[in-house]
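User:
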Amino acid sequence: MRRLFGSVRARATLGAALVVALALVAAGAAVLLSLRTNLTDQAGARANSAAREVASQLVSGRSYAELDLPDSEDSPVQVVDDDGRLVAVGDDLERISGTGVDAVKPGPATGKPSGDDDGEEKGDGEEDSDSDSGSDSDSDSDSGSGSGSGSGGGEISDDTKYSEGSATVDGESADYRFAAVEVSTEDGSRGDLTVYAGGSLSDEQSAVSTALTSMLVGFPLLLVVVAGTTWLVTRRALRPVAAITEEMSAITASEDLARRVPEPDTHDEVARLARTTNETLTALQTSVERQRRFVADASHELRSPIASLRTQLEVGVAHPELLDVDGAVEDTVRLQELAADLLLLARLDAGEKPGGARVDLAALVREELSQRTRDRVDVRMDLECLEVAGSRGQLARVLGNLLNNAQRHARSQVAVTTRTDGAWAVLEVADDGSGVPEGERERIFERFVRLDDARSRDDGGAGLGLAIARDVAVRHGGTLVVLEAPSGGALFELRLPIPQSSAE
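Assistant: Predicted structure:
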């Protein structure tokens, strides 16, 4: 299981399925809620219409027995007086809940005679009414008023209260939404009435049930389709990644950094990954080859002074009078300097940070020149006080290497200048020698490179000074280039950024 979900394809498929499932559940719930609300409102509207139709009949003065009530299966109706007694009800209603009145049979109502009761009262009083016609007229008038058969009158409330419940009609039970409408009649014997009418919720229940069933069947199928599509799409998209992984494994096993991973002919993230991987392999191959050359050149450069020093010491042991002490010291110094250069290059390659100390370039030049007592030619200075941030020791090494190079090639003079150029502090070391050919001006900064192959190692050095100088300059955020000096010799220009606080 852990291996399965360790796959990007499996996680993408699972994630897509979960997102779609959540979206479908949310959308389905919203649809069902909207459908149920809409159909419930329609049932409420039907119930309200039926209740107001009955209320209109009551206001018009109809008696309870004369009310034209709708079919109870479509809309069960109850008419309740202000005392909560049922005075009229639809046919075949056997049970009801949700209206607050559970009765399904009208009870006796004082002052609310039905039409048939009026007829019986009139029949019983015929023998006495013949003797007094006026009394008969009054009786007929009272009877008509009591039955609500006159012109009537009253008011129907604009407000409708809704509730939900159930009703059993002719043995069949169903759920309804009930509307309650209050009626105020002008007939004092009736008082205030409340008409309850129901609207069937069977359409709402049927529609919601059908929609829910469709969702329960359709949603899993849709999830399967989404998951399958995501699985296939991610498999196709990640196929180049598998090829890259396979090739990287082969490169690791063979240690052949000349190999490259395949780059898909696309413009997506996988293609960029492949290109970046190949760029990384190229940089790694270059670094390894550079390291190999460095080790080989270092071994070669170290072999010469060590061999010379050993020879002199062996001769001195056998023939003390022939020992060249000055030569041994010179070889030792040269060996010490070479070892120091190699150690500094190793630290630079390891990413040693230059630090953020403030260094005055003019003071650094004066201090360096004061310690040089064996220079071949004079050094002319034109200095401006400038502060830069970095390692004083590393910057001193750069200046010393540039001065050594200038002393080695100058005919009669070396010039050191410091100046400001915008946001840059510039240090220039120029000589009046033969200069550097334009095509060789970048090559001289490579490690163990000496342009004058004919000169001796003792005069020419190991070819590391300028390489070290440029590496230090770059790590300080600056540049080091070689140009042509006004005197025709070489002009080495070191540019370092001026710290913001100093520039202000």
